[in-house]
Write a structure and sequence with these properties.
4-stranded antiparallel β-sheet, alpha+beta, Immunoglobulin-like, binds calcium ion, 4 helices, disordered N terminus
């Protein structure tokens, strides 16, 4: 859809100080007309921006009434549940978007870039594009306390069906140690780019000062 998307920080705006983007309808798209929306309709969308029927009208269903508040809350929660009908751990929405079928599983690698579908799903890359692979950007950052290692990568937003990201580090690449206690999650940024992922940055101070190797394992 052709949304105007902005994330202004001005407190004069309705979105000021919040991290939720403001969706602005345009004359070209005119969603209010194409959806047949009525005044005070709450239209809940699925992951493809398709309205889920029927709209919840705030005039007919006054939120001062507790039963109406609960009904709206229930509908929002239902809309946010990950659907995985083929039980392969990958959201069906993502499979349909990339493959138009649920026949592919997490282990397959249709674009032959040596990253299986689960890894591409987990890290926001394109599973039908061999030139699109999970990216892990690293750098050394100098500070007054000394230099530290920084690593950024994409992970799926929310609980994502129980997907886990296990960070490990090693001095020689043979013995791997859980790095969750040694690495600090220093930044989370949602790029709002439609991939359903956020960019996380971890920092690490090497206690021995020697060579350190890192890896991220993805699984359930
Ligand atoms: Ca699935
Ligand atoms: Ca692949
Ligand atoms: Ca790929």
């Amino acid at each position: 859809m052709n949304w105007n998307l902005s994330n202004e920080s001005s407190n004069d705006l309705m979105t000021g100080g919040r991290d939720m983007p403001w969706l602005q309808d345009t004359n070209e798209v005119n969603v209010a007309v194409s959806w047949g929306a009525n005044y005070r309709d709450v239209v809940i969308l699925d992951a493809w921006n398709r309205p889920l029927d029927p709209p919840f009208n705030l005039t007919a269903l006054d939120l001062a009434n507790k039963a109406n508040r609960e009904a709206l809350k229930t509908r929002l929660r239902q809309a946010a549940v990950l659907v995985d009908a083929d039980n392969d751990g990958i959201g069906d929405d993502w499979e349909e978007r990339h493959f138009t079928t649920l026949d592919r599983n997490g282990e397959s690698d249709p674009d032959k870039d040596r990253e299986n579908n689960l890894m591409e799903y987990a890290c926001g890359s394109g599973p039908e594009n061999g030139g699109s692979v999970p990216l892990f950007s690293t750098m050394m950052v100098a500070s007054e306390q000394g230099s530290f290692f920084s690593m950024s990568f994409r992970r799926r937003l929310g609980v994502a069906g129980g997907l886990k990201y296990r960070l490990e580090w090693s001095e020689g690449g043979r013995v791997w140690t859980d790095a969750s206690g040694a690495m600090t999650l220093s930044q989370i940024e949602n790029p709002y780019d439609g991939t359903g992922t956020e960019v996380v940055t971890y920092t690490f101070v090497n206690p021995s000062g020697g060579t350190a190797v890192f890896r991220v394992q993805v699984g359930f």
